[in-house]
Design brief:
This protein is an alpha+beta fold and 498 residues long. It contains 15 helices and 15 strands. Helices cover 42% and strands 23% of the residues. The N and C termini lie far apart (76 Å).
């Protein structure tokens, strides 16, 4: 068996022995216990799991950095232990090479070449650094200590540590392609236009949907306090939202339309504002209100300031033509889309992501939501602009959303004239495994199953029977076809000039 061991080239072997002799000549002391403990702490990646667990306590980039570090470490550990230790069996340093008080006991029985500890240390540290350079820099001394401890305790030859470190660096660089660093979002840009000034709410009609998720008994009172001269209509559960909003918009003396509610309510108000040529004031409220965030009025004070000063901007809207019902007696609807439309599993994905986001942060919540949604979901057969697909998700954004992956969050520009079309397909073989692997490695945006494009017109038809369509969060079953186009600059909305 001894003859089958990998032999280091002569010069490398001499250098290894020379370096080990130099280490063995160091005087004994407390540092010997320190490096033994450091080496033991890193066994089976325990040290790095602990660091990752600590970083995971902090949402945002620290948590994402921890996940990237663990992913890189996992790749490095697998390559080292399953591949190179099998291909390059090498004897470890012998007890006579180091003082007995320093030699690790018991000595590992696996191949000395390469050092798994070093590979994991470098991979985790570089993986973290690619997301948060400052955190990676703080971990460099720890990783260096782990790598050196393997020489100091006689567990490895120096060349084993060097080779293992190179594997770790390569694993981190490889996983950067799997878990790419997101490019920065573009700056917010708006087309500023003047609008009617409504100080104290004079001339402002506000429609309040009492079914909005954050509605409370004091909602109207709070709005009346900041807009004392405004007309406020509470829409009760037994009243038709669209009819009541039109009633507010056409009320004599109304020069601006305000709305409090979720995405569906805001979309209905946007349609009324466009039809009656009124500026729209979107107030932060409801279950979800993405447009208020994109419009720059995520707080009530921001909305009050913009309306009082008459500061506004232009936005495109989507026109959605829907055909539903029986083939011999179809029902045709025309809707205004302010934010998004979707078919397939996207509504479930968003719901789960929103539930998990407070605890996990956006990146991890998106990953967890994807796994939960697609582990049990089934694809839908659709024809998109005449091309048939099996789709997990068909997502249509009114405007270009960011990031450019499976979890779009923000829309810096509201007047860009495009529909953001995103399809995650199940056309390929092993579709579910491909999807879950791309979620795990953070490569959904670059995966072959993801198709990102921009257009000004989209037609979707089900392959069989009917489909379920969601427009701005409002779900419609029994849909036979849908056509989506863009109406450029159709909506004027209040937005702080700054």
């Amino acid at each position: 068996m001894r003859s089958m061991l990998w032999k280091a080239p002569g010069r490398l072997a001499k250098l290894d022995r020379k370096l080990v002799r130099a280490v063995s000549a160091l005087p004994g002391g407390g540092h010997d216990d320190f490096f033994r403990q450091v080496s033991a702490a890193a066994n089976k990646g325990k040290l790095w799991f602990g660091v990752a667990g600590f970083l995971a306590l902090f949402p945002g980039k620290p948590r994402r950095a921890a996940l990237h570090g663990l992913l890189a470490q996992g790749v490095a550990s697998g390559v080292t232990n399953l591949l190179f230790k099998t291909l390059l069996p090498r004897a470890r340093p012998l007890p006579e090479h180091l003082p007995a008080f320093r030699f690790v006991h018991p000595q590992p029985t696996s191949s000395s070449m390469p050092s798994g500890h070093s590979a994991s240390a470098v991979a985790f540290t570089l993986g973290v650094a690619m997301v948060r350079p400052a955190l990676g820099a703080a971990l460099v001394p720890v990783a260096a200590g782990v790598a050196y401890s393997r020489i100091h305790t006689g567990a490895h030859w120096p060349s084993d540590v060097l080779f293992g470190s190179a594997i770790g660096a390569g694993a981190a660089l490889a996983t950067r392609k799997w878990w790419p660093v997101r490019p920065p979002f573009p700056e917010t840009r708006r087309t500023v236009v003047p609008a009617a000034k409504v100080p104290d709410g004079e001339g402002l009609g506000i429609a309040v949907n009492t079914l909005g998720g954050s509605y409370a008994d004091e909602t109207v009172e709070a709005l009346q306090k900041v807009f004392p001269k405004a007309y406020i209509k509470e829409i009760r559960p037994d009243e038709d939202v669209a009819t009541e909003i039109v009633g507010v918009a056409t009320r004599p003396g109304t020069v601006a339309l305000g709305v409090w509610g979720g995405d569906g309510t805001v979309g209905t108000a946007a349609a009324a504002a466009v039809e009656h040529d009124l500026p729209l004031l979107v107030l932060p409220g409801g279950t979800l209100n993405h447009f208020a965030r994109d419009a720059g009025t995520p707080t009530l004070q921001a909305a009050v300031d913009a309306a009082s000063r008459g500061e506004a901007a232009r936005a495109d809207v989507g026109h959605v033509a829907v055909e539903r019902g029986l083939p011999d007696s179809p029902e045709r609807l025309e809707l205004t889309m302010l934010n998004t439309a979707s078919i397939g599993l996207y509504p479930n994905l968003v719901r789960r992501r929103e539930q998990l986001q407070p605890a996990l942060g956006k990146p991890l919540a998106g990953v967890a939501a994807m796994f939960r949604t697609f582990a049990a979901g089934t694809p839908t057969g659709l024809a998109v602009n005449g091309v048939r697909h099996k789709l997990w998700i068909l997502y249509i954004g009114r405007g270009r959303y960011y990031p450019r992956d499976h979890a779009p969050l923000v829309r810096p520009v509201l007047e860009d004239g495009v529909l953001d079309l995103r399809m995650i397909t199940a056309d390929e073989s092993f579709a579910r495994l491909r999807l879950l692997w791309s979620v795990l490695t953070g490569t959904v945006a670059s995966s072959r199953i993801t198709h990102l494009s921009e257009t000004s017109r989209i037609r979707v038809e089900p392959a069989d029977s009917t489909m379920v369509l969601a427009v701005d969060g409002e779900v419609m079953p029994g849909v036979r076809s849908v056509d989506v186009t863009v109406r450029r600059g159709a909506l004027t909305y209040y937005s702080p000039a700054s």
